[in-house]
């Protein structure tokens, strides 16, 4: 049997976003958190086939659009990438909105504004169009917060590190320069991947954060290594790690949200502040702390992230049962 998927490929500030516009599995009309669980249980082969080699690669990310269950949302999005089926993805949201609007997949109730239902909750998005193209996007992300500060963990080949556990739609280990890590200068991509893998493995024995409002969201699966900026218009620079060996080419939407929540939680960023976040390749997201928020017993923020994406092509992908590599592979 051959399955066909029509995809719109894009990138958000350098990070790939593959929007599955046709061929995605039909799911029951339920809240996105429940649809995510059903997808993972019954259809995760679709993610594996479209994200991993030979049809994808180590940093591939994507999304599938569904009708919204919530009446206050225009459409729903399921995020798929090499690290799994995520509750939320900032770069994925910016790329998905850009592709969906430009290609006519959705018709917003109000020009320049859409509300998206994600597994993490409602995400409001504004966008600007120029000449028929989406020029920029700002997503108003889910409430973000500093879950635990100054967690000490022994990392093989690095020594003891002090990290903060912060939530911005996914849980992150936030690392800043310290005695046993001097910063991003001089680190190769493979260095960052190796350090991230060891850090995540070590943290698994130390902490297991659970979202106060949704116990299905738990665990530290991402790391963000933070350093001083290179670009003089930026406030900080980062490398976001996810999956097994992926480094976000953008500054990371949920990563930037987690970073701002961490800085807010430590009294280093105020409501109304702007935080311009630089990626390893020099692209920038403009974060803003829009308001305070309460997440269970935690004080947090409502962040927004501004960025851009570009559609780079249409892609019809076949997944044929006769192919021994139909469901993808990854070299570890």
From TrEMBL:
GO MF annotations in UniProt: 4-hydroxyproline epimerase activity
EC numbers for this chain: 5.1.1.8
Family annotation (InterPro entries): Pro_racemase_fam (IPR008794)
Catalyzed reactions: trans-4-hydroxy-L-proline = cis-4-hydroxy-D-proline
EC primary class: isomerase
Keywords: Isomerase, Plasmid
Domain of life, per lineage: Bacteria
Pfam families: Pro_racemase (PF05544)
Family to which this protein belongs: Belongs to the proline racemase family.
PANTHER family membership: TRANS-3-HYDROXY-L-PROLINE DEHYDRATASE (PTHR33442:SF1)
Protein name as it appears in the record: 4-hydroxyproline epimerase
Organism whose genome encodes this protein: Rhizobium phaseoli
């Amino acid at each position: 049997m051959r399955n066909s998927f029509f995809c719109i490929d894009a990138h958000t500030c350098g990070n790939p976003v593959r929007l599955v516009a046709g061929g995605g599995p039909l799911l029951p009309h339920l809240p996105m958190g429940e649809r995510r669980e059903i997808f993972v249980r019954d259809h995760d082969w679709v993610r594996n086939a479209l994200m991993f080699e030979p049809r994808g690669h180590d940093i591939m990310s994507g999304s599938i659009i569904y009708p919204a269950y919530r009446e206050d949302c225009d459409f729903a999005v399921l995020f798929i990438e090499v690290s799994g089926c995520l509750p939320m993805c900032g770069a994925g949201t910016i790329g998905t909105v850009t592709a969906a609007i430009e290609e006519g997949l959705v018709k917003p109730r109000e020009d320049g504004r859409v509300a998206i239902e994600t597994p993490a909750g409602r995400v409001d998005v504004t966008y600007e169009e120029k000449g028929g193209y989406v020029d920029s996007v700002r997503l108003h992300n889910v409430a973000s917060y500093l879950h635990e500060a100054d967690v000490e963990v022994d990392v093989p080949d690095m020594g003891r590190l002090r990290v903060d556990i912060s939530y911005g739609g996914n849980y992150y280990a936030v690392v800043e320069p310290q005695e046993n890590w001097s910063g991003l200068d001089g680190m190769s991509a493979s260095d960052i991947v190796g350090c991230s893998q060891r850090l995540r493995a070590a943290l698994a024995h130390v902490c297991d954060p659970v979202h106060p409002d949704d116990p299905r969201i738990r665990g530290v699966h991402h790391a963000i290594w933070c350093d001083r900026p290179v670009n003089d218009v930026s406030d900080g620079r980062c490398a976001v790690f996810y999956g097994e060996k992926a480094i976000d080419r953008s500054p990371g939407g949920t990563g930037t949200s987690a970073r701002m929540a961490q800085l807010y939680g430590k009294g280093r960023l105020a409501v109304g502040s702007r935080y311009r976040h630089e990626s390893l390749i020099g692209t920038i997201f403009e974060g803003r702390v829009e308001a305070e928020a309460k997440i269970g017993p935690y004080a947090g923020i409502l962040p927004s992230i501004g960025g851009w994406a570009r559609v780079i092509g249409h892609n019809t992908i076949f997944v044929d049962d006769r192919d021994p590599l139909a469901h993808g592979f990854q070299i570890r």
